[in-house]
Design goal:
The complex is a heterodimer. By secondary structure, chain A is α/β, with parallel strands linked by helices. Chain A contains twelve helices and nine strands. Chain A folds into three domains: about 130 residues, 3-Layer(aba) Sandwich (Rossmann fold), CATH 3.40.50; about 35 residues, no CATH class; about 100 residues, no CATH class. By secondary structure, chain B is of the alpha/beta class. Chain B is globular. Classes of the chains: A alpha/beta, B alpha/beta. Chains A and B meet through strand 8, helix 10, helix 11 and helix 12 of A and helix 2 and helix 3 of B.
Chain lengths: ~325, ~140
């Protein structure tokens, strides 16, 4: 059998997904056995023009990690889509926007203002900001356009498979490597993880959900046998897809929601609002406002990894809103 | 372009608010026709997803209405509504959605005039806000 051609690309991401591929340890040799790497900016020296020179659909698999933040990401996504047979959204950023998509609570102007002007380590009296085109005497310099809104990969191109996780766990990566090696791929559109929620897979003792105080992680040392939510710690398990191997739960940390919504759930944040408010033991107005105060940042907590693919996708910002 | 007519999706509970709306009709009260009513068995049935989905599907406002506290047909369904609604509202504020766009009001089966005035008031409030920007109103 001819070797598979594999591309790995990183867009708006931290690089953790690239490390996760290396985390398969000696299995990387199996990967090298079945696949030739044709693009992996993090690990090997290939240029975009090498990809442009390839024939359409000549790459067998592309593992794309990171969300789509700039015009460069979008251009490369479209280029790789044209050249690739199987496109995989690899990791939470590619699947749902991930941590970079928390920028959807802001916009380009606000982010530039903070990053290049306000931040205390800046010294920028001339207010120099990134420009897509700059004229200098040698010619024109180009930078990719920085978008107002962070998108998931599937919002820009068609995607065959999704491997969620921040980063995706090794066993799921190996599952995909095995599937590629044997040619037994799941139906397109599949999420390579569990169909159930994290709570469904969690083996902690559950005694009945009713809480009357929410603790932030630094305020309490949780019992490592009991349900974290029942101890008053915000755990995203009720509306998060399982299949992660309970990585956080096993080290006594609450789920942060990186696997995105489970099958059948449209909006992870809305479901978490519903779940958390339902189990909070509040009847009077004072108790309800205590609950609302204790959940300091509901949008940032419940959409920590899922802003791009949430129903509202971004914050509405006055002045930028135009009539539809 | 004609004048902007707000589209408001109303989730009304079967036992109180829907009947209040019905009474407004049979009493021939005049009120604005901007609310599209969806009957639910209890205001507690209104999943926060419904609210977001309504906005994202073209509604300019969402009105949830149920029995007064203490009058719930299912004892405490509407108490759960308040809890979910309060948390949802905090999240919607973070997402830049104006207070008037998503409202919760109690209307009993006999409060036809109250129902009519709530609908009239909310429609005017949403009219002032303008259409809900589905795509966030910004490109890129």
């Amino acid at each position: 059998m001819a070797k598979l051609k594999l591309a790995v690309f990183w867009a708006a991401s931290c690089g953790g997904c690239d490390v996760a591929i290396l985390d398969i340890n000696e299995k990387i040799l199996d990967l090298a056995e079945i696949a030739d790497i044709v693009l992996w900016p993090c690990a090997a020296d290939f240029k975009y023009h090498h990809v442009e020179a390839m024939e359409d659909k000549s790459i067998d698999v592309c593992l794309w990690n990171g969300s789509v933040r700039t015009s460069e990401h979008e251009d490369i996504a479209k280029l790789l889509r044209a050249k690739t047979k199987v496109m995989v959204a690899f990791g939470s950023c590619a699947c749902f926007g991930g941590i970079p998509a928390l920028a959807n609570f802001s916009n380009r102007d606000e982010i530039f203002e903070r990053a290049y002007i306000e931040a205390p380590t800046n010294d920028n009296p001339n207010r120099t900001l990134p420009q897509t085109l700059t004229k200098v005497k040698e010619g024109e310099l180009e930078l990719p356009e920085f978008y107002n809104t962070v998108h998931s990969l599937a919002q820009v191109i068609d995607v065959e498979y999704y491997i969620p996780g921040c980063p995706p766990p090794v066993d799921l990566i190996l599952k995909v490597v095995d599937a590629l090696a044997t040619g037994q791929l799941p139906p397109p559109g599949s999420v390579i993880a569990s169909e159930k929620t994290l709570c469904d897979e969690c083996d902690r003792i559950k005694e009945g959900k009713s809480i009357s105080k929410i603790y932030r992680p630094h305020q309490i040392i949780p019992d490592d046998k009991k349900c974290l939510l029942e101890q008053g710690i915000l755990c995203m398990g009720p509306a998060t897809r399982g299949g992660c191997g309970l990585r956080c739960i096993k080290v006594n940390m609450p789920c942060r929601g990186c696997f995105g919504p489970p099958a059948g759930v449209v909006d992870q944040g809305a479901k978490l609002v519903s779940a958390i408010a339902s189990i909070y033991n509040a009847g009077s107005e004072e108790e309800i406002s205590k609950m609302v105060d204790e959940i300091v940042d509901p949008a940032g907590t419940f959409y920590r990894f899922g802003m791009s693919t949430s129903l509202l996708k971004r914050k509405r910002i006055a002045g930028l809103n135009s009539p539809r | 372009m004609g004048e902007f007519e707000p589209k408001i999706v109303g989730f009304f509970c079967n036992w109180c608010s829907y009947r209040g709306a019905d009474l407004a009709g049979t009493s021939r009260l005049k009120y604005v026709p901007n609310v599209r009513v969806i009957r639910v068995m209890c205001s507690g049935r209104v999943d926060p997803t419904f609210v977001l989905k309504a906005l994202q599907s073209g509604a300019d406002g969402v009105l949830i209405s149920g029995c007064h506290i203490g009058d719930c047909h299912y004892q405490d369904g509407n108490r759960k509504t308040v809890r979910r609604f309060s948390l949802l509202k905090k999240m919607l504020t973070q997402l830049g959605i104006e207070d008037e766009r998503v409202q919760l009001e109690w209307v009993s089966a006999s409060e036809a005039t109250r129902f009519a005035s709530i609908v009239n008031d909310m429609t005017e409030e949403v009219r002032k806000l303008g259409p809900f920007p589905i795509n966030g109103g910004i490109s890129g």
